[in-house]
Design a protein that fits this description.
It is a single chain. This protein has 172 residues and is α+β, with helices and mostly antiparallel strands. It has one domain. Helices cover 51% and strands 27% of the residues. The chain has 5 helices and 7 strands. The strands form 2 sheets. It has a 4-stranded antiparallel beta sheet with strand order 1-2-3-4. A 3-stranded antiparallel beta sheet has the order 5-6-7. A hairpin with a 2-residue loop joins strand 3 and strand 4. Helix 1 packs parallel to helix 5 and helix 3 packs across helix 4. It starts with a strand and ends with a helix.
Length: 172
């Protein structure tokens, strides 16, 4: 039924996975190398949401086909028929782009964190009438905004976490 699949970019998932592993290793070090109770509580409180976001990002997927669109997230899924979508809009905040799918039952948001984002937007627009698609959405097909700040920040976080781990290992 669904022919095209769009996932979150690997260029984001790989450094975010590295961040999660390094954070988990730092958490283990705090337990086994005598970290303070506050340090363990703080690292645990940070690790749990990071792990959830990792799973949410890894499982997030959009599939399109002749009948409609399926949006899959961690442990949930929503299928929309093309007839149910009443409007496709775009919200641009610096280099972040959010495609807003308005339906008869609510709205759904897709960001430019997906791989092949311009193809995804083109696929969505091709199944809709022209009056249902905003002009800004059509501009994203031809000139998509690139968001590299998330990727740079996740790699920077990995370097910082690795530095903290090195300091913790060699000063203990």
């Amino acid at each position: 039924m669904y022919q095209k699949v769009y996932r979150i970019r690997r260029s984001f998932l790989i450094p975010f996975f590295a961040d999660s592993v390094l954070l988990f290793f730092l958490l283990l070090l705090s337990y086994f190398l005598g970290g303070s109770k506050l340090e363990r509580i703080l690292l645990t409180a940070i690790f749990i949401p990071v792990l959830y976001v990792l799973f949410e990002s890894a499982f997030r997927m959009v599939r399109t086909g002749d009948q409609g669109i399926m949006i899959r997230k961690f442990m949930r899924r929503k299928e929309l028929r093309w007839e149910d979508i009443t409007h496709i809009g775009a919200l641009i905040l610096r280099n972040r782009v959010y495609i807003l799918l308005t339906t008869v039952k609510g709205f759904y948001i897709l960001s430019n964190a997906y791989d092949k984002f311009s193809i995804l937007v083109g696929d969505l627009a091709s199944h809709m009438d022209n009056e249902k698609v905003e002009e800004e959405v059509r501009r994203q097909i031809e000139h998509p905004a690139k968001n590299t700040s998330d990727i740079i920040m996740t790699w920077f976080t990995a370097v910082v976490l690795a530095g903290i781990i090195m300091i913790k290992l060699f000063t203990s």
